[in-house]
Amino acid sequence: AGAAAEARFISSAKGKGLFATRNIRKGETVFVERPVVSSQFLWNALYNYRACDHCLRALETAEENAQRLLGKSSLVLPHPEQCSIRKDLHQQCPRCQVTYCSAECRQAALEQYHQVLCLGPSRDDPTHPLNKLQEAWRNMHYPPETSSIMLMARMVATIKQAKDKEWWIKAFSQFCSKTANEEEEIVHKLLGDKFKGQLELLRLLFTEALYDEYLSRWFTPEGFRSLFALVGTNGQGIGTSSLSQWVHACDALDLPMLQRDELDAFIDQLYKDIEKESGEFLNCEGSGLYVLQSCCNHSCIPNAETSFPENNFLLHLTALEDIEAGEEICISYLDCCQRERSRHSRNKILRENYLFTCSCPKCLAQADDADVTSDEEEEGEGETDDAELEDEMTDV
């Protein structure tokens, strides 16, 4: 069964789009995609959200996950057999001790980028150039996190290790690029008002840690800004959670009604308690670059959505409606609450975060609506920030 979707060039204003090559039914998986490169967010890792260093699979058991998020080590989860975590398969890099979910991931990381990035015995040495780079990034980019300097580091390391360097450079050049002014805006969005000074500091640290003659352009001020903007524009949030895997498995259990009600009540209460303790930060989170997914344009009435049902970096694109052959496949960059707001509010968020004005059917239909936000919207205006966008991006 050939691919159900392909990327096509639309126009210089819109760039590429993803189109159905055959009829797709509602609920169908359009494709499953692995990223060319991905990385866990740095604060997320620092706060002990333990994930495979390669595929971001959560490494804690569902019970350990719940205990940590609750701050309560005595919690016992029912149905422990529904937890999918296999600790017997976990492996560490023998030199630097980062952990992988399997021998396959350890090998894949080693072959693609880890030889260059392995800190060996310097893992806890704050003066190591890679550690200095990570520390500087954490000090500039607090949670909720939307990007990681390590995604760029893995891109460089991948090319450094590659036999066919041109193939990888071509792979990375498929991602949408922006004009110099748009790049400035994206970097400004990621780094805030101090961005010029911070970007220069990052560039110097990045150069100290990773400089490569073959990629010298990426280390110039313009090239580094472009690389930074590429990751900022195309990075897709990834979220994994052994607890949510366990919940999905429990939902599928065939139980007598009384037991079903008890289990549902237990899970509801668990999530309420976790929210009090840990807020919205439930998942192991990171970001990745996905060739096909990055071609998906936004619509305020999307016909597809992304998710990570395998508890790792494999992205599933699922149809929300029937899609006909030749039709464009669109996802939403906004969460459900944001999609319900006025056209004016939606476009304010899209312009600020993604630098475009939406012209989907819903926005065109509302084009004559007044350009004001309703009173309730005014109150909520300040809250629709990266945290919500990030939530949407990393939903599991």
TrEMBL record:
Keyword Transferase in annotation: yes
CDD domains named in the record: SET_SMYD5
GO cellular component, one term: cytoplasm
Subcellular location(s) of the protein: Cytoplasm
Region (Disordered): 370-396
GO molecular function terms listed in the Swiss-Prot or TrEMBL record: histone H3K36 trimethyltransferase activity; histone H4K20 trimethyltransferase activity; zinc ion binding
Keywords: Cytoplasm, Metal-binding, Methyltransferase, S-adenosyl-L-methionine, Transferase, Zinc, Zinc-finger
EC number: 2.1.1.359, 2.1.1.372
Annotated catalysed reactions: L-lysyl(36)-[histone H3] + 3 S-adenosyl-L-methionine = N(6),N(6),N(6)-trimethyl-L-lysyl(36)-[histone H3] + 3 S-adenosyl-L-homocysteine + 3 H(+); L-lysyl(20)-[histone H4] + 3 S-adenosyl-L-methionine = N(6),N(6),N(6)-trimethyl-L-lysyl(20)-[histone H4] + 3 S-adenosyl-L-homocysteine + 3 H(+); L-lysyl-[protein] + 3 S-adenosyl-L-methionine = N(6),N(6),N(6)-trimethyl-L-lysyl-[protein] + 3 S-adenosyl-L-homocysteine + 3 H(+)
EC top class, as a word: transferase
Main location, first listed in the record: cytoplasm
Pfam families reported in the protein's UniProt record: SET
SET domain ranges (all copies): 5-334
Any one Gene Ontology BP term: methylation
Name recorded for this polypeptide: Protein-lysine N-trimethyltransferase SMYD5
Species for this entry: Machaerirhynchus nigripectus
Name of the gene encoding the protein in the UniProt record: Smyd5
